[in-house]
């Protein structure tokens, strides 16, 4: 009997259910019964990996706020993917590179929710590509120093979106995240930064600023995880470093379902998996990293073997 009870702890709905706390439970101070939810916020939830993360959490019962700068994208995602699911997807526009906009977002969530359980800092940008196989120093200088993508402003924009905002978003939401951890014994709220294998591989992949920003984002994740832990806050901070997934960033567009497509052949030779990542690959990684209570300060590369093939530093 005891062994059978133990078996239950291995069931998928116990391990991978973001709404595990969603069972009705008594809350003495409220003098009645109330449904405890998992509340999540995903930046850049209107396309690509952010949309995959939103679906992974909402389809499994979480209430998911998605943000981005483009209202139409968020509305379309809500119209399409918020139907007949146990959770919810709710759009709020915000620009995560603007501190006033982050502050407004915190106030907005605070006015609607008592806590935040999951913050996924996913929004990111990539600037143009630069050639790196020159025949001379002059040619390399032309490609890197003179090229418009090598403009210092492009580096600033990349770092502002891919690095600085992780710091400001995470620190701005700490009080709501702390309250999230107080909702149930055994649950710690979590910050999950979407970084990239570009911050791990030794090659520039023709975009130095992007790769440097992602390496910084991985390091920032670890510093935040450490400082939050030493401040005795029960909030886990980790990052997922994706390989290649279809998105507006990697394909320049989305279709009428807000989804993007990369032909399999394009990555047949580049990874052990011989294909780009799928919705399911990202979804299971998101569920793992958000629900696993023993994961802290880590980088989880979900890349079909991209780092193995490209080599890391
Ligand atoms: N796809 C890949 O292969 C891959 C691989 C490794 C890492 N990543 C990382 O995954 C994350 C998601 O990118 P993606 O590939 O899914 O590309 P994507 O489809 O372009 O998604 C990025 C999202 O971020 C939003 N965003 C950009 N700047 C923002 C800002 N200042 N404020 C709020 N939202 C903003 C965009 O919406 P708006 O433009 O409407 O604001 C967009 O929906 C990025 O951090 C990226 O670096 C992607």
The count of strands amounts to 9
Specify the number of helices.
12
Sequence of strands across the biggest β-sheet? 5-4-3-6-7-8-9
Overall geometry comes to globular
Using the 3D structure, state the CATH architecture: 3-Layer(aba) Sandwich
Which band does the percent of strand residues land in?
A: 15-25%
CATH top level label:
Alpha Beta
Structural class: alpha/beta
List ligands, each type once.
Answer: NADP nicotinamide-adenine-dinucleotide phosphate
Order of helices and strands: HHEEEHEHEHEHHHEHEHHEH
- Please tell me how large the radius of gyration is: 20 Å
What are the SSEs and their pairings?
Blueprint: H1 2-8, H2 12-15, E1 24-27, E2 32-35, E3 39-43, H3 48-59, E4 63-68, H4 71-81, E5 88-93, H5 99-112, E6 118-121, H6 137-146, H7 152-172, H8 174-181, E7 189-194, H9 208-230, E8 235-242, H10 248-251, H11 279-291, E9 299-302, H12 306-310
Parallel strand pairs: 3-4, 3-6, 4-5, 6-7, 7-8, 8-9
Antiparallel strand pairs: 1-2
Helix pairs in contact: 3-11, 5-7, 7-9
The structure holds NADP nicotinamide-adenine-dinucleotide phosphate.
Biased composition (Basic and acidic residues): 254-269
GO molecular function, one term: oxidoreductase activity
InterPro entries: NAD(P)-bd_dom_sf, Sc_DH/Rdtase_CS, SDR_fam, Sec_Metab_Biosynth_SDR
Report on this structure.
- This protein has 313 residues and is α/β, with parallel strands linked by helices.
- It has a single domain (22-310), classed as NAD(P)-binding Rossmann-like Domain (Rossmann fold, 3-Layer(aba) Sandwich), CATH 3.40.50.
- It is built from twelve helices and nine strands.
- It has helices spanning 2-8, 12-15, 48-59, 71-81, 99-112, 137-146, 152-172, 174-181, 208-230, 248-251, 279-291, 306-310; strands at 24-27, 32-35, 39-43, 63-68, 88-93, 118-121, 189-194, 235-242, 299-302.
- The strands form two sheets. It has a seven-stranded parallel beta sheet with strand order 5-4-3-6-7-8-9, sandwiched between helices. The protein has a two-stranded antiparallel ribbon with strand order 1-2.
- Helix 3 (48-59) packs across helix 11, helix 5 packs parallel to helix 7 and helix 7 (152-172) runs parallel beside helix 9 (208-230).
- The chain is globular.
- The termini are far apart.
- The relative contact order is 0.13.
- Bound molecules: NADP nicotinamide-adenine-dinucleotide phosphate.
- NADP nicotinamide-adenine-dinucleotide phosphate binds next to helix 3, strand 4 and helix 10.
- Residues 248-276 are annotated as: Disordered.
């Amino acid at each position: 009997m005891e062994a059978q009870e133990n078996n239950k702890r291995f069931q998928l709905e116990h391990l991978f259910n973001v709404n595990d706390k969603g069972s009705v439970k008594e809350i003495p101070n409220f003098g009645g019964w109330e449904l405890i939810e998992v509340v999540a916020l995903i930046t850049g939830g209107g396309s690509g990996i952010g949309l995959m993360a939103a679906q992974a959490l909402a389809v499994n019962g979480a209430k998911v706020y998605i943000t981005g700068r483009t209202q139409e994208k968020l509305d379309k995602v809500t119209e399409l993917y918020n139907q007949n699911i146990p959770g919810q997807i709710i759009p709020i526009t915000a620009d995560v590179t603007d501190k006033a906009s982050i502050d407004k977002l915190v106030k907005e969530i605070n006015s609607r929710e008592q806590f935040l359980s999951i913050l996924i800092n996913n929004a990111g940008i990539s600037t143009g590509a630069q050639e790196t196989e020159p025949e001379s120093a002059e040619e390399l200088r032309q490609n890197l120093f003179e090229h418009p993508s090598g403009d210092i402003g492009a580096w600033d924009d990349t770092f502002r979106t891919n690095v600085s905002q992780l710091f400001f978003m995470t620190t701005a939401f700490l009080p709501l995240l702390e309250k999230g951890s107080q909702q149930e014994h055994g649950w710690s709220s979590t910050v999950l930064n979407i970084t990239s294998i570009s911050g791990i591989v030794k090659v520039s992949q023709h975009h130095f600023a992007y790769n440097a920003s992602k390496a910084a984002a991985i390091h920032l994740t670890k510093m935040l995880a450490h400082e939050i832990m030493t401040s005795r806050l029960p909030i886990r901070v980790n990052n997922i470093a994706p390989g290649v997934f279809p998105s507006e960033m990697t394909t320049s567009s989305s279709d009428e379902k807000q989804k993007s497509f990369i032909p399999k052949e394009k990555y047949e030779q580049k990874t052990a998996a011989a294909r780009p990542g799928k919705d399911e690959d990202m979804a299971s990684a998101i569920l793992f990293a958000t629900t696993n209570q023993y994961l802290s300060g880590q980088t989880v590369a979900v890349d079909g073997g991209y780092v193995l093939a490209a080599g890391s530093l």
